[in-house]
């Protein structure tokens, strides 16, 4: 009997030990497999990134060689008419030299205030012209406020950036200005806006930065607004200034809000995670019945925007997208190419501007609705940077936009779906390698 009891107890002990033994083996094997899987994933990511980096480096070298041998070319220009939109007068500009002359003339007429904001401000003839005119007005007692982005001007000499007249109020906007900002994605936003507001009544908004290169060699679009709608643009400037300036440097001048059903302002606010410009585009595309004429420097749309364009084309809307044939960012060009097949299959016409660097950010829909501004159709602009666009409900203004688009596309390269699919295998491979980077652009 005792022998049977001991045998039973021994059996129970063995039964208890066996699961423990198997469990340890299981977790040991699981841990080993998990670690091996992590190593494989890590190595795959490193290999992928290395190939992407190599591809991008090759493209940058080729681009540098190409740019070294590039000759400055003129591009077609047309005279654009000033139009009346409600209580405001609007004038489009498609040539930098004409725009700068108009901006400097407006600065010279200032009596009370000048607000100017630029993503890039070059240390060249054009850059010094603006500084000189602003200094003269500041000496006359006009309140002059200047904002530019520090990262956008990394290659601009510090002496130039720090040599503004002492009478000028200066804000050098700095993304992630402190260590704690590095863990806050909202603080990575750049100030990509380009604005000039004089006396709260005359304003300029669009894609042009300040520099001699942009004055003569780039095709961009700006609009001048004279009238009460400028007060809302001035308010946007003062809101930005007062948020990021020192406490004792805030602008006290008040610009009352003015509702205008014909002219609306949309500004991306990264700190508040508000990005209405993307929604503005999507809503306008959804409403389109006849035509969508879109010009953009860097076409890297997110899924919702791309789907809206494709759906519009499939329902019979004439959708045309004009992009630079070769831009100043060759890697972005190749990432952009990865969207073209989808666009062409949906019936979207893709055109390449080849006379100069096309930097415009514009769209007009059905000859009734238009937008001009600073936002590119990429993720940095749509869901990242501080941007600003004006939308205009006016057939007369849309007509001027359509004339400008027709001039730009008169000698543009139109992509053919069959020929595009037959492009060299190494081109397709390069685009495929860089495609994952579209989520960073």
Structural features, described:
The protein is α/β, with parallel strands linked by helices. It folds into two domains: 83-261, Endonuclease, Chain A (2-Layer Sandwich); 276-440, Endonuclease Chain A (Endonuclease, Chain A), CATH 3.30.870. The protein has 14 helices and 18 strands. It has helices at 2-68, 96-108, 125-139, 158-161, 212-216, 230-244, 276-287, 303-314, 330-337, 340-345, 379-383, 395-409, 417-421, 425-434, and strands at residues 83-85, 88-93, 113-118, 143-149, 169-173, 195-198, 202-206, 218-219, 222-226, 263-267, 291-296, 318-324, 349-353, 357-358, 361-365, 369-373, 388-393, 413-414. An eight-stranded mixed sheet has the order 1-2-9-7-6-3-4-5, with helices on both faces. The chain has an eight-stranded mixed sheet with strand order 10-17-16-15-11-12-13-18, sandwiched between helices. A hairpin with a 2-residue loop joins strand 1 (83-85) and strand 2 (88-93). Helix 2 (96-108) runs parallel beside helix 3 (125-139), helix 7 (276-287) runs parallel beside helix 8 and helix 9 (330-337) crosses helix 14 (425-434). The protein is globular. The mean pLDDT is 86. Keywords: Membrane, Transmembrane, Transmembrane helix. GO terms for molecular function: phosphatidyltransferase activity.
């Amino acid at each position: 009997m005792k022998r049977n009891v001991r045998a039973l107890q021994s059996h129970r002990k063995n039964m208890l030990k066996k699961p423990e033994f198997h469990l340890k083996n299981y977790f040991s094997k699981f841990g080993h497999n998990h670690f091996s899987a992590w190593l494989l994933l890590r190595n795959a990511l490193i290999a992928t990134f290395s190939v992407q980096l190599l591809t991008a480096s090759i493209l940058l070298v080729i681009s540098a060689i190409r740019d070294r041998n590039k000759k400055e070319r003129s591009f077609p220009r047309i005279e654009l008419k000033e139009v009346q939109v409600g209580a405001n007068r609007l004038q489009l500009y498609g040539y930098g030299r004409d725009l700068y002359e108009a901006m400097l003339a407006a600065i010279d007429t200032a009596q009370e205030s000048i607000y100017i904001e630029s993503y890039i401000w070059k240390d060249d003839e054009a850059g010094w012209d603006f500084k000189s005119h602003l200094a003269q007005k500041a000496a006359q007692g006009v309140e002059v406020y200047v904002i530019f982005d520090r990262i956008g001007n990394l290659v601009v000499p510090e002496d130039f950036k720090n040599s503004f007249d002492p009478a000028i109020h200066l804000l050098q906007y700095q993304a992630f200005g402190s260590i704690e900002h590095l863990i806050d994605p909202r603080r990575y936003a750049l100030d990509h806006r380009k604005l000039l507001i004089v006396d709260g009544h005359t304003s300029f908004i669009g894609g042009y930065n300040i520099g001699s290169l942009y004055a003569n060699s780039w095709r961009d679009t700006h609009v001048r607004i004279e009238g009460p709608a400028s007060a809302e643009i001035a308010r946007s400037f003062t809101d930005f200034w007062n948020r990021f300036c020192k406490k004792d440097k805030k602008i006290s001048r008040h610009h009352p809000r003015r509702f205008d059903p014909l002219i609306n302002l949309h500004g991306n606010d990264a700190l508040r995670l508000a990005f209405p410009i993307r929604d503005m585009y999507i809503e306008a595309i959804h409403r389109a019945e006849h035509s969508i004429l879109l010009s953009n420097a860097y076409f890297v749309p997110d899924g919702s925007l791309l789907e809206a364009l494709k759906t519009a084309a499939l329902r019979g809307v004439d959708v045309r997208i004009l992009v630079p044939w070769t831009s100043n960012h060759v890697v972005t060009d190749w990432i952009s190419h990865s969207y073209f097949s989808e666009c062409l299959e949906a019936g979207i016409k893709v055109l390449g501007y080849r006379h100069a660097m096309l930097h415009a950010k514009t769209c007009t829909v059905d000859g009734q609705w238009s937008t001009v501004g600073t936002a590119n159709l990429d993720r940095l602009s749509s869901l990242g940077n501080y941007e600003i666009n004006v939308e205009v409900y006016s057939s007369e203004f849309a007509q001027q936009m359509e004339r400008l688009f027709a001039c730009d596309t008169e000698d543009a390269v139109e992509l053919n779906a069959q020929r595009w699919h037959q492009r060299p295998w190494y081109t397709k491979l390069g685009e495929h390698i860089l495609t994952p980077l579209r989520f960073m652009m």
